[in-house]
Amino acid sequence: MIHSTTTFVTPSSDRVRFELFGSVLPHPAAQASLATQAAPAIDIAVVHLGASTLRTRAAQRNAQSRAARRVLRAMLPACPGRRAPRICKTALGAPYLEGGPDLRISIAHSGGWIACATAPSACVGIDIEQPRQRDWLAGAPWALHPAEIAWMRENPQQQSLQGLLHWCRKEALVKALGLGMHDSVPFPEIRFSPQGLLIEAPDRCGDVGAWNFHTRVLRSGAVMAAAWR
């Protein structure tokens, strides 16, 4: 696995720490589930922006969105003599490149964290979530599969992290399918093992054995998950 870290100055002059986890056929230390050894490679960038000085949530989200686009553009291969591609959105809100390399892309941000993923031949989705106090069992009917609920009841000390891992993986899966929040797959119909293996999913997800997942628990307890096939 390639792991490089650099610091650069963005167009708005704020400094961003850019961590690129390249060509992810996942590292043994990461939680991963690969469909086959021939699974397509993807590139993932994870960035932490630090504390925000913006006062409103809307302003913070706009700043995160702009920063995510800058990170994504930094990941794209150089195309001398060509205009930079536009990052557009489908009617369902899924990002795509217009006038650029034939890459699938996905973007996520939460708090000060940003995650971007690109894949040359695979549909890809990424999600990142800050840790938060949440009673996952109380919210289980809309977020978790019955088997996931049962495991968490038997392992209450792991409820907080496992709930966030399940949520992140499901968000990444839905994004990889190009679905919006109002045209999504019901999360209780998606089942992951505690180790991150996709066991069950609705028919519109296709063959569960074709999906690959890469999960990382980052500093401060934030969780990042990518899904692709």
Automatic annotation (TrEMBL):
Recorded GO MF terms: holo-[acyl-carrier-protein] synthase activity; magnesium ion binding
Domain 4'-phosphopantetheinyl transferase: 124-220
Highest rank taxon of the organism: Bacteria
CC annotations in GO: cytosol
Gene Ontology annotations of biological process type: lysine biosynthetic process via aminoadipic acid
SUPFAM superfamilies to which the protein is assigned, alphabetical: 4'-phosphopantetheinyl transferase (SSF56214)
Keyword Transferase attributed: yes
Pfam families registered for this protein in UniProt: ACPS
Keywords assigned by UniProt, alphabetized: Transferase
Family membership noted in the UniProt record: Belongs to the P-Pant transferase superfamily. Gsp/Sfp/HetI/AcpT family.
PANTHER family: L-AMINOADIPATE-SEMIALDEHYDE DEHYDROGENASE-PHOSPHOPANTETHEINYL TRANSFERASE, PHOSPHOPANTETHEINE TRANSFERASE
Full protein name: 4'-phosphopantetheinyl transferase
Organism: Paracidovorax avenae (strain ATCC 19860 / DSM 7227 / CCUG 15838 / JCM 20985 / LMG 2117 / NCPPB 1011) (Acidovorax avenae)
